[in-house]
Amino acid sequence: MAFDLDENFQLDIAQMNLKKVHAIIFSLHKPKIPFVVWLLENPKSPLALPGKISLRHHDYIHILLGRGISPQDEAFVIGFTMGNDLKTNQLHLFIYKLFVKFIYPYPYKFSSLDLINFNLGFIYGRNIRIKQINEINFEIYQDEPIGNLRNIFGINPDDIKLIGEY
After folding, report:
1. Contact at 8 Å (CB) between 66 and 80?
2. Alpha-carbon distance values, 163 to 18, 87, 102 (Å)
3. What is the C-alpha separation between 50 and 61, in angstroms, rounded?
4. pLDDT tens digits, residue range 79-119?
5. How many CB atoms lie within 10 A of CB 55?
6. pLDDT digits (tens, 9 = 90+) for 35-69
7. Could you say which DSSP state residue 58 is in?
8. I want to staple 50 with a disulfide (CB 3.0 to 4.6 A). Which of 6, 22, 88, 132 is the partner?
9. Ramachandran region of residue 51, left (φ > 0), alpha (ψ -120 to 50) or beta?
């Protein structure tokens, strides 16, 4: 089951601002990103794929989607971000899936279950109102309640729960 940020922390994060929720949930989560992951996912990389996003802004996407940090949650969030970037095409998906299945090191490597969640996130990202969420300057939204941001961006946590996790 997904690590549901709203339920597991017993907080009504919809009323809390982005900055506070990030400080509570991700302040101790500072992973060392392997070079190959940085190469495909970091906006500063010359080879980054569409959907590229800074780690902090990636964390914000976790919060907005109400997804935790399990491998399936991570796959969903990355799929969502790539799906929401309209520059993502079939070649990008092939390259990314090849790397996460066979080249990325543990714990960044995806299982078949993770790939299902990636695909679900991709579809959800393609279908929300706002596009190119990876290019948004979230710093201007630091004091905005999560519920308001979800409304602005067209993210519905209830829809995400219906999608479920496999």
Report:
1. no
2. 24, 24, 26
3. 15
4. 999 999 999 999 999 999 999 999 999 999 999 999 999 99
5. 15
6. 999 999 999 999 999 999 999 999 999 999 999 88
7. H
8. 88
9. left
DSSP letters for 64-75: HHT--SSHHHHH
pTM of the model: 0.89
**Cβ atoms of 108 and 64 closer than 8 Å:** no
As separate numbers, helices (DSSP H) first and strands (DSSP E) second, the chain gives 9, 0
**Cis? peptide before 107, omega within 30° of 0:** yes
- Over its C-alpha atoms, the chain yields an Rg (Å, rounded) of 15
| Whole-angstrom distance, CA of residue 101 vs CA of residue 115 | 8
CA distance 5 to 13: 8
